[in-house]
Design goal:
By secondary structure, this protein is an alpha/beta fold. The chain folds into two domains: 144 residues, Rhodanese-like domain (Oxidized Rhodanese, domain 1, 3-Layer(aba) Sandwich); 116 residues, 3-Layer(aba) Sandwich (Oxidized Rhodanese, domain 1). It is 28% helix and 14% strand. The chain contains ten helices and eleven strands. The strands form three sheets. The protein has a five-stranded parallel beta sheet with strand order 1-5-4-2-3. Strands 7-6-10-11 form a four-stranded parallel beta sheet, with helices on one face. β8 and β9 form a beta hairpin. The longest helix has 12 residues. The chain is globular. The model has no long low-confidence stretch (mean pLDDT 96).
């Protein structure tokens, strides 16, 4: 899909969204960590999405991708159509919004954007908020996994740990990466994975917008992550890595992938290799 097919760029600033938010093909989705954030004031016209619906919710790895039946029900309830341009945001700098956009990429819906900085940047810009509930017009959206390559599973990761064309970006905290904390049977990180915590890609002085692109590329390249590589990102549940997947896309990493099972799966098995400093 060419860029001119998209209503807005991948990363959209609050002022630009404010100009465009009443466009009929636009669907603004607020997917906050805390539901009260939406109730306290959201982008006018934004529909609320409970982030739990982006995960399977059952089994040993509840953070896995929902099945296509659940995804069809989810996106139908949001009113998604093939022509809809989605703008996602949240209340924490891009984790759940990124997971939503990754899910859209997975099902082949590439008309999407992220509101840079989310509701923090919107409010800081002095733009109006609403406390009124917006009920979407339901659609009949049949979801299919059209781009499975944006996901990577445990088996492929295990087989490719020595592959120099694949890098693993661990978006968790340094303490989790080092094996000093975590709620798993085994602590540490995937062998060879590099750590850049998800919040380190946010500009705290600019209301959690993405940091300067050139600086981020330099930091990632210093860790061995280059735009020509396949980069698989993960965290504990593919929440924080929803944002790092999005960051990679914004920086021009064309082969960004995400491991939805994340450490919830890897760190709770006996047959997965684990590394500590």
């Amino acid at each position: 899909m060419s860029s001119e097919d998209n209503l807005l760029p991948l990363i959209v600033e609050p002022e630009r969204l404010a100009e465009m938010r009443e466009a009929p093909s636009l669907l603004i989705i607020d997917v906050p960590l805390k539901a009260e954030s939406h109730a306290q004031g959201h982008v006018p016209g934004a529909v609320y999405l409970d982030f739990k619906r982006l995960m399977h919710g059952a089994g040993d790895v509840p953070n896995e991708v929902p099945d296509t039946e659940a995804l069809s029900a989810l996106f139908s309830s949001l009113g998604l159509t093939r022509d809809t341009h989605v703008v996602a945001y949240d209340d924490e700098g891009g984790g759940w919004a990124g997971r939503l956009l990754w899910t859209l990429e997975l099902i082949g819906h590439r008309r999407y954007s992220y509101l840079n900085g989310g509701i923090h940047a919107w409010r800081a810009a002095g733009l109006p908020t609403s406390t009124e509930t917006t009920a979407p017009t339901p659609s009949d959206y049949q979801a299919e996994i059209l781009h499975p390559e944006v996901a990577i599973d445990r088996l492929e990761l295990s087989e490719r740990l020595d592959d120099p064309t694949l890098a693993v970006w661990d978006a968790r905290s340094r303490a989790e990466y080092d094996g000093e904390k975590g709620d798993n049977r085994r602590l540490g990180h995937i062998p060879g994975a590099v750590n850049l915590e998800w919040t380190d890609a946010m500009d705290k002085a600019r209301d959690l917008r993405l940091r300067d692109y050139a600086e981020l590329v330099t930091e990632l390249e210093a860790r061995g992550l280059t735009p020509d590589m396949e980069v698989a990102t993960h965290c504990q549940s593919h929440h924080r890595s929803g944002f790092t997947w999005l960051v990679g896309k914004a920086l021009g990493f064309e082969k960004m992938r995400a491991y939805a099972g994340s450490w919830k799966e890897w760190g709770n098995r006996d047959d997965t290799p684990v590394e500590k400093p």
